[in-house]
């Protein structure tokens, strides 16, 4: 068994339209970061909006950690990526996103999920 750190790549397509799925993706990402895993969180589809300042606060879910706190945890110790096409479809530019959020496309996503030791989850 390898001692190389595992990478968890999480892709979330849900937004305010599916608050439980959204919160679950962010919760798993934050928990993985807290446990020392290398984490890459991809914001796609309706979750693209959460790359913008103050938008995570729009999601309020009873009995769940606040989305802004979860996002801050992942930004602090992991990687958060906004899908290029998803951003373009919503008129979001690199100048609009939170500090630390990168904008990238499917080629990088595929590279990450095919890397040795990577585990991908989609919400």
Automatic annotation (TrEMBL):
Q: What is this protein called?
A: DsrE family protein
Q: Identify the domain of life.
A: Bacteria
């Amino acid at each position: 068994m390898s001692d190389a750190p595992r990478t968890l790549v999480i892709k979330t397509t849900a937004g305010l339209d599916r608050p439980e799925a959204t919160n679950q993706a962010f919760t798993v990402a934050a928990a993985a970061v807290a446990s020392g895993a290398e984490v890459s969180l991809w914001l796609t589809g309706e979750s693209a909006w959460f790359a913008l300042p103050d938008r995570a606060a729009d999601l309020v879910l009873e009995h769940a950690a606040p989305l802004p706190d979860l996002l801050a945890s992942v930004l602090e110790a992991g990687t958060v990526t906004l899908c290029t096409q998803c951003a373009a479809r919503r008129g979001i530019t690199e100048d609009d996103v939170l500090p630390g959020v990168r904008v990238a496309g499917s080629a990088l996503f595929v590279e990450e999920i095919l890397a040795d030791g990577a585990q991908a989850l989609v919400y």
